[in-house]
Design brief:
CATH topology of the largest domain: TIM Barrel
Pfam families: Pantoate_transf (PF02548)
Order of helices and strands: HEHEHHEHEHEHHEHEEHH
Binding site for Mg(2+): 68, 107, 139
Structural class: alpha/beta
Strand order of the largest sheet: 1-2-3-4-5-6-7-8
Radius of gyration: 20 Å
Bound molecules: 5,10-methenyl-6,7,8-trihydrofolic acid, 3-methyl-2-oxobutanoic acid, magnesium ion
Biased composition (Polar residues): 8-21
Number of helices: 11
Largest sheet: 8 strands, parallel, barrel
GO molecular function: 3-methyl-2-oxobutanoate hydroxymethyltransferase activity
Shape: globular
Oligomer: single chain
InterPro entries: Pantoate_hydroxy_MeTrfase, Pyrv/PenolPyrv_kinase-like_dom, Pyrv_kinase-like_dom_sf
Distance between the termini: 49 Å
Number of domains: 2
Number of strands: 8
CATH architecture of the largest domain: Alpha-Beta Barrel
Helix content: 25-40%
């Protein structure tokens, strides 16, 4: 079945809405707080380059994350673990340059904040000053509260990330669902409250049972951003290459593919190759005399 595509302009929502609103200035963390007050849901996508980011900006995506998922999605690493501050800074700056309206959140990569609050502040400051991001994200609940506190004191908005924290893949031995069982659920609740108390403006809930994510969303006054955390979260995030059908191989269960970009791009490359080999490209109209 086909469905009508809603553009920001044709939306019935208020001009303040994060998605569908008419304001053209860049979105801030105050707008994010106001959306929770209104009970409004919003979408977030990752982006790793200026051109893709400009597509999402034009589509009205209000918040983009320059995720350390660039490690596996963009840079060819096996996980997010090897991603460096230099890589994060370069690609975050590109995403900022490619956008006019979205709030850009830069992920702090593994090893850039684990040493403590001062290291976190140094690296977050670099993303803000050199790349121009409006906020940073780091993984961990209670264990990262000190870092969050210092960044927020310094005037850097922080998005927290609890539940499955992929930078700990070597400790987990994979990417398992979190918060199952009473003890794990209590820990997740403590983590969510700790990041809110530390001053985070939003919190990602990754791979958490839907009922638990719903409870966290009701309890917190900051928005929850779900990935594999059910429909009751205030916002939802997906890695853009997963969302668009660009990532090869088997997808996590929480992914919904909204396009078949990998197939479309491969077909375009093959058509170009056939034309070159067969002499159909360039044609007269592509030639100079
Ligand atoms: N392309 C991409 N998409 C992502 O969502 C993503 C990344 N990369 N890189 C960093 C992390 C890694 N993530 C992952 C990776 C695998 C699963 C996964 O396969 N999970 C199982 C659930 C396992 C269980 O039942 O315990 C699944 O089937 O969804 C989940 C999150 C999320 N992040
Ligand atoms: C999946 C999101 C939350 C993330 O941290 C990333 O893309 O790096
Ligand atoms: Mg990440």
């Amino acid at each position: 079945m086909t469905h009508a595509l809603k553009t920001p302009d044709s939306s019935q929502k208020s001009n303040k809405a994060l998605y569908g609103g008419t304001s053209s200035r860049r979105i801030t963390v105050r707008d994010i707080a106001a959306a929770k007050e209104r009970g409004e849901k919003w979408p977030m996508l990752t982006a790793y380059d200026a051109m893709t980011a400009s597509v999402f900006d034009d589509a009205g995506i209000p918040v983009m994350l320059v995720g350390d998922s660039m490690g596996n999605c963009h840079l060819g690493y096996e996980s997010t673990v090897p991603v460096t501050m230099d890589e994060m800074t370069l690609l975050s700056a590109a995403v900022v340059r490619g956008t006019k309206r979205a709030l850009i959140v830069g992920d702090l990569p593994f090893g850039s904040y684990q040493e403590g609050a001062v290291q976190a502040l140094r690296n977050a400051t670099r993303l803000v000053k050199e790349a121009g991001v409006g906020a940073v994200k780091l993984e961990g609940g209670e264990r990262s509260a000190h870092q969050i506190e210092l960044l927020v004191q310094a005037g850097i908005p922080v998005m927290a990330h609890v539940g499955l924290t992929p930078q700990s893949v070597n400790a987990y031995g994979g990417y398992p669902v979190q918060g199952r069982g009473e003890e794990a659920a209590q820990q997740l609740l403590r983590d969510a409250k700790a990041v809110q108390d530390a001053g985070a403006f939003a919190v990602v809930l990754e791979l958490v049972p839907a009922e638990l994510a719903a409870e966290v969303t009701r309890i917190l006054h900051i928005p929850t951003v779900g990935i594999g955390a059910g429909v009751e979260c205030d916002a939802q995030v997906l890695v853009w290459t997963d969302m668009a059908g660009m990532t090869p191989g088997r997808m996590p269960r929480f992914v919904k593919q909204y396009a078949k970009l990998r197939e479309a791009l491969g077909d375009a490359a093959k058509a170009f190759a056939e034309d070159v080999v067969g002499g159909a490209y360039p044609a007269e109209e592509h030639s100079f005399h």
